[in-house]
Every structure is written in structure tokens, then in C-alpha cells.
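tool_call: predict_structure(chain=1)
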Amino acid sequence: MSMNFSSKLLENAVNEFAKLPGIGGKTALRLVLHLLRQNDDEVDHFGNTILKLKKEIKHCKVCHNLSDTDICHICSDIRRDFSTICVVENIRDVMSVENTNQYNGVYHVLGGIISPMEGIGPADLNIISLIEKISAENSVIKEIILALPTTMEGDTTNFYIFRKLGNLKVRITTIARGIAIGDDLEYADEITLGRSILNRTDFETTLRN
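tool_result:
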């Protein structure tokens, strides 16, 4: 739906907000008008926060999670169980699993899943670093939990990782199918997701079903 703007500055700002996912033109206009009602300090703080985020955010050198520091707070927490790694698609999934309070291991963020339709292959994901982490001489890793979306792309990625880790002495499990087929972890309620983690099964058994 086209809108007639009395100001080019207003139109440009609305167009930028409308580029954000899930934000339509009307919502973008409401957000911009809200900012215009704020005092200069508040708008400056908003803008500087976004700029600081973009310029200073890091990827954890261990798990690839987003972090303020080179090593994220999870990987640097000595109370975590470093023998168990939960493999997830993105940071939203890390947050979802953490919110269950049912998992005390660490993570490995792939940064996506295999999707030929979108041109995303194994080389585009953080899979090599996962293999290197597990096969390292000083590795303490005993279990890999595959917690990827229950979609065709997620299952394809699970199977690819399973095959790549086949020769390594590590248990490979997957979260129980309490998560509905086609669901992303971030949309699962905390109780369901927590139970799916606790009731995880060996991945190899899923191949026989």
C-alpha cells in the first residue's frame, strides 16, 4: 500500500524500517513517528546502541555464538559440562534451550542448515570446526546432541553431521520428537523443549524408524 509523505526525510526513514523482517509500511511509520516524539538523547542512545552492536559484536571463537567477548559467557563458565555439545542452527536456538533450564552443556552454532534451494551447502556452515573440536587430541567431548529444526533441511543437516562424525568415538543423539515436525526450536514452549532434551535418543535409532 503506497503512502503519500509530506517529508522525504520521513519517507526515507520509514523505508529503512520497512526493510526489517516482519515490519510492514504501517508499522514502520508508527515506529518512526514514535522516535520523532522522543527527546534527542533517547534517539541518540537508540542509534548509538545499534551502531555499537554492529561494530563491536563478536562470534565466540569456541562455539560461534554471538558474544561481547572473544569467548562467550557460556564457554567460559567452568560450571558447564564441556563433555556435551548441543548443535543448533543459530543464536535464537541457544536462547531457547537455555530458557528451559534443563541443559548444562555447551553449544556449537552452525550458522544455518543445509538448504540447496537457498544455495547453502555444508561448506557454508560451521561444521569443520565442530569436527576439529571433537577429533582434537585433548578433546573431552562424549556426546553431541543434534538440536536442529524438525524439517527436511534440518534432518539433512543432522544426517550429514552424523556421517561426518561416524568414525569418532562420540555418542550422537537427537532431541526427542516432542517438537512438532516442521517447527523451529524458538517456537517451542520451554516445557516441551526441555522434555525433548531430557528424553533425547541415539540418532542412529531414528534412521531405522
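agent: Residues 8-56 form a domain with the Helicase, Ruva Protein; domain 3 fold (CATH 1.10.8.420). Proceeding to next step.
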